[in-house]
Design a protein that fits this description.
disordered N terminus, alpha+beta, about 675 residues
């Protein structure tokens, strides 16, 4: 009898604790996130201390999600990555009524003579996450990431005040496993309050609620996330064991609501696509008065069985789409156009604007993409332009207002020389992007050039990784790749780098010294000439035999080289015509880089043949198989065509094998391939 009474007492205490936790969570959300307190501070304190007193009396019954425990914890050094059991797919988009109706027609064609209803939800402007509950307890929170793999942010999601950490419901059984998908965002009121507080303290303010939510959710220190007014809104169930037994999307959201999950403040079930359009127009009008930022609506087929019938198209469901609101636009003037040089040498024009607010964001810079886009828009410095935030995300110049153009504005032209290193700017005919030709010298391309130069298939300088390179750049010891071979002159400076002792420095010097003996093909590849990959480098070495011959080769000679097309030939000529590149090459050769003298070329058994390797090879890597074929004179391609001589197919060979069979191209298994090459060894 006493055991039964004790059990009943415990049940009553837990029930009382749960009731207090839910009430406090509700008012926490109203106070911290919505900035709309619904009770007085004294009343909140009374409820809080009532819960605390119960917990002190029954410490073994303290609930995992109690607000009396300090939210947060120890800062992490990095986030762990994890693969989603059920991929977090993206949604297709529609932007107007015609596209919406076309979406509905495609569904009706696949579900003939069926009654179709639509679940319509707000499309939050936040960050999608996945939450795992085991026996009702939150055990994991994961970002969407790339849809296949996300980052584990459990510490941070546990600090979100309106998110249930332990599930309870009087109306539904707690599932053994529940994976809930939803959006983390910062409601407008909380965002404005956070910015006001940060501004008063002289700290960073955020451009918009989405940026604030993203910055908060990805803090390594969960105490920072805990201090931010974040909220979670559920939009679906990825897994539920045992199955919830519901048949409608709208019902599943209400079911989640019973467990304490917030869903959008506006939610509709529509009997026709025309009704969906009416709700879209209504929400678009009410958008400014909503408590959260949205960038559209999500339209889903409501019936879960029909969703299953419709299935998926590529990386998105056929049964759902995002109906985006029109982009927000504003007028401003272009004060200047600068040319930025990317890590691969691409020149990108950036318009400097008279700052203007567009869709809640102050925009002062906008990319013009390339010289072709500038000519298409006929945009000039001093023009009045319309700036849009396309899809409410990326600002872009949509229109030039010629009515406001002064008479003295001149056309924008492509710079003749790189704004960073003064090397010639080149853009072969048929190409859209202009590039700096000084790839070996240009400081904007320095990191990419060094990373490529030291890679295994290039100069193969083991140990010169990104951490070393960053430190050497910081010490101003690497202005270009030729400085690698002068690092031995700075031993004492290198020894000052943290965690780089005498042995590490000597190992680096040895690796650099060993790299001086290479092959002509590897050296050509290491230079990083655009369009010149490993195969092309080998062909150039075989064709020209000496580096000096390649350096002096004209366009016609290069075009005759196997694996070199017209544009690649132009890139090679441009590279060797850039004086700064030649200066770096001369320094490299003067440092002692060398290779064996050319031998008289012999006709190899597979000379000029195109081979393709696909799938996984059990006895060797694909690199090894490639080297065997190249040594026999074959060209190894990444794609199958009618000109392909043969395909080597390992395990899990996919579309390339299918295409070879379709085209009638001979196919060898790994075993057959090994037997084939054995005759030449």
């Amino acid at each position: 009898m006493s055991m039964v009474k004790n059990y009943m007492d415990k049940t009553a205490v837990i029930s009382q604790m749960r009731q207090l936790i839910q009430i406090l969570a509700k008012h926490n959300h109203a106070y911290y996130v919505m900035d709309q307190p619904s009770i007085a501070d004294s009343e909140y304190d009374q409820l809080f201390h009532q819960l605390k007193a119960l917990e002190e009396q029954y410490p073994d019954l303290v609930q995992a999600d109690t607000p009396t425990l300090k939210v947060g914890g120890k800062a992490l050094s990095k986030f762990e990555s994890i693969t989603h059991t059920v991929p977090m797919l993206s949604l297709g988009n529609v932007f107007n009524q015609d596209e919406l109706f076309a979406f509905a027609r495609r569904i009706e064609e696949r579900l003939p003579n069926q009654v179709i209803q639509y679940d319509v939800e707000l499309k939050f402007d936040g960050l999608a996450i996945s939450l795992w509950y085991e026996n009702g307890v939150l055990v994991r929170g994961v970002t969407r990431g790339d849809g296949e793999t996300g980052e584990v942010i459990t510490h941070n999601v546990k600090t979100i005040r309106n998110l249930p950490k332990v599930l309870s419901s009087a109306n539904a059984e707690i599932p053994r496993l529940l994976e809930v998908r939803g959006e983390v965002l910062m409601p407008k009121a909380g965002f404005e309050k956070l910015n006001a507080e940060n501004e008063a303290k002289g700290e960073k303010t955020f451009a918009n609620p989405r940026n604030a939510a993203a910055g908060s959710l990805r803090q390594l220190d969960p105490n920072i996330a805990a201090s931010r007014p974040l909220a979670f809104y559920a939009y679906g169930i990825a897994q539920c064991e045992p199955h919830h037994g519901l048949t409608k999307m709208s019902e599943s959201l209400e079911w989640l609501n019973h467990f304490g999950f917030a869903i959008g403040e506006q939610h509709f079930v529509c009997n026709s696509i025309q009704e969906v359009q009416e709700k879209y127009d209504q929400i678009n009008q009410q958008r400014a008065s909503l408590s959260v930022e949205i960038d559209g609506m999500v339209v889903k087929v409501d019936d879960l069985k029909q969703q299953k019938q419709l299935g998926f198209l590529s990386r998105e469901p056929r049964w759902a789409t995002a109906y985006k609101f029109p982009a927000v636009a504003a007028l401003t003037t272009i004060e200047n156009i600068d040319w930025q040089v990317g890590r691969t040498g691409t020149l990108t024009p950036v318009a400097r604007l008279n700052p203007v607010a567009v869709g809640g964001v102050t925009v002062s810079n906008v990319t013009l993409h390339n010289i072709g886009e500038i000519h298409r828009l006929d945009v000039r410095i001093g023009d009045t332009v319309s700036v849009y935030r396309s899809g409410d995300v990326i600002p872009k110049v949509e229109k030039v207002w010629l009515e406001f153009r002064p008479d003295n504005l001149v056309e924008v032209t492509l710079p003749e020389s790189c704004p960073v290193c003064a090397s010639p700017v080149v853009m072969p005919e048929g190409e859209a992007l202009a590039r700096c030709s000084g790839g070996l010298y240009c400081s904007a391309q320095r990191i990419e050039a060094i990373r490529h130069f030291v890679s295994r298939k290039a100069m193969d300088i083991e140990g010169l990784g990104d951490r070393w390179v960053e430190s050497l750049l910081h010490l101003d010891l690497l202005k270009d790749v030729s400085d690698i071979y002068h690092l031995h002159e700075h031993r004492e400076k290198l020894l000052t780098i943290e965690k780089m002792g005498e042995k590490s420095v000597q190992n680096l010097f040895d690796a650099i010294e060993n790299s001086k003996k290479t092959s002509l093909a590897a050296f050509i590849y290491a230079l990083g000439i655009r369009g010149v990959g490993e195969n092309t480098s080998r062909m150039l070495a075989q064709t020209f035999q000496t580096f000096e011959a390649l350096r002096q080769a004209d366009l016609e000679a290069l075009k005759k080289t196997p694996d070199v097309g017209d544009i690649t030939a132009e890139w090679i000529v441009d590279f060797f015509q850039a004086p700064h590149n030649l200066e770096v090459i001369d320094r490299l050769l003067a440092a002692g880089i060398h290779w064996d003298a050319p031998t008289a070329p012999t006709r190899q058994p597979l000379n000029g043949e195109s081979w393709v390797i696909t799938g996984t090879l059990a006895t060797m890597g694909r690199d090894d198989a490639t080297q065997i074929l190249q040594a026999l004179g074959a060209r190894v391609s990444g794609s199958v065509s009618s000109k392909t001589k043969c395909v080597v197919a390992g395990e899990k060979a996919g579309s390339k094998l299918e295409k070879a069979e379709k085209l009638g191209v001979p196919v060898l298994s790994e075993e057959q391939f090994l037997a084939f090459v054995q005759q030449y060894q």
